[in-house]
Design brief:
Belongs to the NnrE/AIBP family. The chain is α+β, with helices and mostly antiparallel strands. The chain has 14 helices and 20 strands. The strands form four sheets. Strands 11, 12, 13, 14, 15, 16, 18, 19 and 20 form a nine-stranded antiparallel sheet that branches. Strands 5-4-6-7-8-9-10 form a seven-stranded mixed sheet. A two-stranded antiparallel ribbon has the order 1-17. It is elongated, with a radius of gyration of 29 Å.
């Protein structure tokens, strides 16, 4: 059995936090907002009579200090194994299902690409360098890892590094290049000229600091590729040792530069890897065309494949099993996913200040201004918003018996349960006055993503199924909250207010402006109800599609229409460095300005 639902997307968590250092505000659980989860604990809803979970959803509590040492599997730290770090390129591929090349095979493929298949060296170098740059940008954002030193050798691997440096400069990083043994060929001279025209500094070996960790955040190892034989000669032997030394020192330092190796960690055997165990230990390896055998010995957290140019004839001849590149990406993550410490995930926002004197007098005008900024910035679905609703029973699942009405649990869950009730009673009795507006703060809400389809002085409009869960909750409690999150601008807008249905005429007009496929889907989809399977939905859709194939008017179903939220409160949030964010809150009393405050958190 599956549930017929509206558009699905990651949901923000709804919560309320009171702090004396923050402006005085009228609280409401209807206000969802995005924030960072740092630890994980036990299931959100418990059935105390059986000590089992009644929901797969989990909430975060840190009760270690209150309860003492806990060994229960219900309370444990979270270690995400998700491989998705950045954008589309983070599609994981099992390394056991991918082909690895010997040194001879890699050389033959290069010869074939540059021979009968018509590729030139500069074409392949450009594609390789771009792949390296995009792989770095996937994991290491310029706001945290800005200073990059590219160490380039005299061959094609060094050329890949020079191209990568140019692209990384345009991606917003601050570049430095060490290119000790320059190649006199026009291709390489042209790459140097391109970098010099960008005013990228070239540093000699003697000009490099003794301790690279103080001046650079990323070190790109582009010294030697798969065609290299023998032992590295000066000055590259010394440069390799600098990178090796960084690894040993980095284990004792809080933060040391990350090392990114291009195709082969310099000094490694192409097939056997780090033979003596004394070589470079890169944090990221960007394999090109296909990974070489030594990549199986790579143990760092980030392994990417770049070079989206291998034609089918090459793949068939060498029986290459290569991953699919997602979307338009030039790189794809392969190998095991990194172990991610969720508590260490953070973004240091860099934004212009949002001051009171900059805000529009009417909060609706301020919303229009920010919404237009999001559209102009080209953000995907700037009209996407989280909608939070709640039913009259103060429970998000609509059940008739809440947790506090069940028999008391035993063991460790009893301690957790008692703490939860004490916290709830404190909030009810001491934290807030019991006004009608503020009591709504204790109603637990449910959230989902919907699309804004209209906005004016009367409020915010969206459309949905009137038989869905959110519609049932709105009929019981006609208040809701909206959250717009525009990641590319480091902005949020939260809106809270009362909700009512739009007129039938307005719903009818919008319904027939939709694509005919969406009109049919609105009839077929019975939101928040169980259906036997997706094939049933497809069959019903197909039948209606054939019924109205003559282009006749598709009638709007009675169970479908719009809602309008009339704002009572706005909050405009602008992310700032070191978590000192700007917030401007406006509460509208009787559609007039009651208060306007700003704070930094």
């Amino acid at each position: 059995m599956i549930s017929s639902l509206a558009t699905q997307a990651p949901l923000p968590l709804a919560y309320y936090r009171n702090s004396p250092s923050i402006y005085k505000t009228k609280p409401s659980t209807y206000f969802p907002r995005f924030f960072s989860v740092k630890t994980l604990s036990f299931p959100l809803f418990l059935n105390p009579s059986t000590n089992t979970s009644t929901s797969k959803a989990k909430i975060v509590f840190n009760l270690q200090g209150f309860l003492g040492p806990i060994s229960s599997p219900a309370i444990r730290p979270l270690c995400s194994k998700s491989g998705e770090v950045g954008g589309m390129a983070s599609s994981l591929q099992n390394q056991d299902s991918i082909s690895y090349l010997t040194q001879r095979e890699a050389a033959e493929i290069d010869e074939t690409l540059m021979g009968p298949l018509g590729f030139s060296v500069d074409q392949l170098m450009e594609l390789a360098g771009l792949s390296v740059a995009t792989s770095i940008a996937e994991v290491y954002k310029p706001s945290e890892y800005n200073r990059i030193l590219a160490i380039c050798g005299p061959g094609n691997n060094g050329g890949d590094g020079l191209v990568a440096a140019r692209h990384l400069y345009h991606f917003g990083y601050k570049l430095f290049v060490c290119y000790p043994k320059r190649t006199a060929k026009p291709l390489y001279s042209g790459l140097v000229t391109q970098l010099e025209s960008l005013l990228i500094p070239f540093l000699s070996v003697d000009e490099l600091p003794v301790d690279l960790s103080k001046d650079f955040d990323i070190l790109v190892d582009a010294m030697f590729g798969f065609s290299f034989h023998g032992s590295p000669r000066p000055p590259f032997d010394n440069l390799i040792q600098k990178l090796v030394h960084l690894h040993s020192c980095g284990q004792m330092q809080h933060k040391s530069p990350v090392i990114v190796s291009v195709d082969i960690p310099s000094g490694w055997h192409v097939e056997e890897g780090d033979v003596g165990g004394q070589g470079i230990k890169p944090h990221m390896l960007v394999s090109l065309t296909a990974p070489k055998l030594c990549a199986k010995k790579f143990s760092g957290p980030h392994h990417f494949l770049g070079g989206r140019f291998v034609p089918p004839t090459i793949a068939e001849k060498y029986k290459l099993q290569l991953p699919q590149y997602p979307g338009t990406s030039m790189c794809v993550r392969i190998g095991k996913p990194p172990q991610i410490d969720i508590s260490a995930l953070r973004e240091n926002y860099i934004s212009p200040e949002f001051l009171e004197e900059q805000a529009e007098a009417d909060p609706m005008d301020q919303f229009y201004k920010w919404f237009e900024d999001a559209v102009v910035a080209g953000l995907k679905e700037p009209n996407a918003m989280a909608l939070s609703t709640t039913g009259k029973d103060r429970k998000p699942d609509g059940s008739t018996m809440g947790p506090l009405e069940a028999p008391a649990p035993s063991g460790i869950l009893e301690k957790i349960w008692e703490l939860f009730k004490k916290c709830l009673n404190f909030l009810k009795n001491f934290a807030f006055p019991s006004t009608k507006y503020e009591i709504r703060a204790f109603n637990l809400s449910s959230s989902r993503m919907v699309l804004l389809k209209g906005v004016n002085k009367d409020g915010f409009v969206w459309y949905t199924n009137y038989e869905s869960r959110k519609a049932r909750e709105l009929s019981e409690n006609p208040h809701a909250a909206l959250l717009f999150y525009w990641d590319g601008l480091n902005r949020q807008v939260r809106v809270e207010g009362s909700v009512q249905k739009v007129s039938d005429e307005e719903s009818e007009q919008y319904f027939h402006s939709r694509p005919r496929g969406s009109q049919i889907a609105a009839i077929v989809s019975k939101q928040s109800t169980l259906v036997p399977g997706r094939d049933v939905l497809h069959q019903q859709y197909k039948e209606l599609e054939e019924k109205y194939s003559d282009g006749s008017l598709i009638p709007k179903p009675k169970h479908w229409g719009g809602y309008r939220l009339q704002p009572e409160r706005f909050e405009f949030w602008q992310g700032q460095q070191s978590r000192l964010h700007d917030r401007c809150s406006v509460y509208l009393g009787n559609r007039g300005h009651d208060s306007t405050t700003r704070s930094r958190i």
